[in-house]
């Protein structure tokens, strides 16, 4: 278990984070909540300022538009995924074991950072349909590139599993999408219960991981 | 193969469909295309009329609002799912075999009726966030009920598989969602290639089905 007491929190040496970074992080987090609750199209800068308990001015001090905030939410959502999954991908274990760890870690990120992950699911679609500026489309293309790079981690572990004979994969891109689809579905149906424990989320992640790794047909 | 010649089409006794039903079906189908192409929020009744090659008046003759058309698209999308999957569910085979057939049939519906299936994925969410009337919310609740009923077919076959010992399932609702998530992901990433054959779609459906049934870990 990784719970820290308040004292440990104070004693622990902290990464140096500027006040600007902290302000931005607070706004990004509040925006993710608003996007989840009201929908990306309906949420306003006012809603985000209310969620932060701040003024619209403070929000505009850091971001020039709602689109800019959405892009920051997207970027953070992908960072959270990479931070959880990349170390497992890069470990020395056989591919089947790495895939198991990656699937579990991905499922946990979906649940523990639900507003971030949920906000970005439908968002890109909406922006691609919408009237974006050339600069915004460039940012979107970059963000989609980051997402593709993340998806490639799963393809690469599947290829590694074919190579080390721990996995059986007939079509790497499609199987990769099946696995991520099964896990990403969490953003559609998972809602934390009041008082839910980390152990309950772990159990959900284990069931999903077992399904994508072992299937359901009795051996 | 089930291709019918034009003659066979003429000779075959047809289900009696009124002109009103046919007009409605054409509008619903055009609307599904528009929702996919422009996004649900951006598509207008004008776009739908253009797609049909008709006037706005004709569209309004059949539907009182864009919301009403969206609901009809949703209803039809679910009918298409039930038509493909329910007969397999109701067959006499062992549960593992029925699940295989159901997953394959569901994947094929996602691909062959992509505009319908894609339109409804983000739609309900948007309408729940949006400003709907009491009557509309009632319809939405009914439609979500239909979707839940569909999901129950998958849960029931999983339960049957535990009973007839052809499937190994630790948590029926979560495994059901993993399976549908893996298949529904198609609406995010599948786009038909120009000149794509039915055989190519069958191959995609088989890869997905094999993944959700057998997993990827080498036995």
Counting structural domains of chain A, the number is: 2
Q: Gap between N and C termini of chain A, in Å?
A: 34 Å
Q: What's the CATH C level of the largest domain in chain A?
A: Mainly Alpha
Helix proportion of chain A: over 70%
Low-confidence stretches of chain A: 1-12
GO molecular function (chains A, B): DNA-binding transcription factor activity; transcription cis-regulatory region binding
DNA-binding region (chains A, B): 44-63
Keywords (chains A, B): DNA-binding, Transcription, Transcription regulation
Domain HTH tetR-type (chains A, B): 21-81
What do these coordinates show?
2 copies of one chain form a homodimer. Chain A is built from 11 helices and no strands. Chain A is mainly α and 219 residues long. Chain A folds into 2 domains: 47 residues, Arc Repressor Mutant, subunit A (Orthogonal Bundle); 149 residues, Tetracycline Repressor, domain 2, CATH 1.10.357.10. In chain A, helix 2 crosses helix 7. The first copy, chain A, is globular. Chain A starts with 5 loop residues before the first helix and ends in a 5-residue tail after the last helix. The interface between A and B is large, with 48 and 48 residues. Chains A, B: It comes from Oceaniradius stylonematis. Chains A, B: InterPro entries: DNA-bd_HTH_TetR-type_CS (IPR023772), Homeodomain-like_sf (IPR009057), HTH-type_TetR-like_transc_reg (IPR050109), HTH_TetR (IPR001647), KstR2_TetR_C (IPR041490), Tet_transcr_reg_TetR-rel_C_sf (IPR036271). Chains A, B: Keywords: DNA-binding, Transcription, Transcription regulation.
């Amino acid at each position: 278990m990784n719970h820290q007491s308040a004292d440990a929190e104070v004693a622990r040496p902290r990464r140096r984070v500027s006040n600007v970074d902290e302000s931005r992080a607070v706004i990004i987090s509040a925006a993710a909540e608003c996007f989840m609750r009201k929908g990306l199209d309906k949420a306003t800068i006012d809603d985000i300022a209310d969620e932060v308990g701040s003024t619209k001015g403070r929000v505009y001090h850091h971001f020039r538009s709602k689109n800019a905030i959405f892009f920051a939410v997207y970027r953070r959502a992908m960072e959270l995924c990479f931070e959880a999954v990349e170390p497992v991908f890069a470990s020395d274990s056989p591919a089947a074991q790495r895939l198991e760890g990656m699937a579990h870690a991905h499922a946990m990120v979906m649940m523990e950072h639900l507003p971030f992950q949920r906000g970005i699911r439908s968002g890109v679609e909406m922006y691609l349909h919408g009237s974006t500026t050339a600069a915004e489309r460039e940012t979107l293309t970059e963000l989609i590139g980051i997402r593709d790079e993340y998806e490639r981690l799963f393809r690469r572990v599947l290829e590694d599993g074919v190579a080390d004979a721990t996995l059986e994969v007939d079509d790497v891109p499609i199987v990769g999408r099946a696995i991520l689809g099964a896990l990403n579905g969490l953003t559609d149906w998972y809602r934390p219960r009041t008082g839910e424990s980390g152990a309950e989320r772990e159990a959900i992640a284990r069931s999903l991981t077992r399904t994508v790794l072992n299937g359901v047909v009795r051996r």
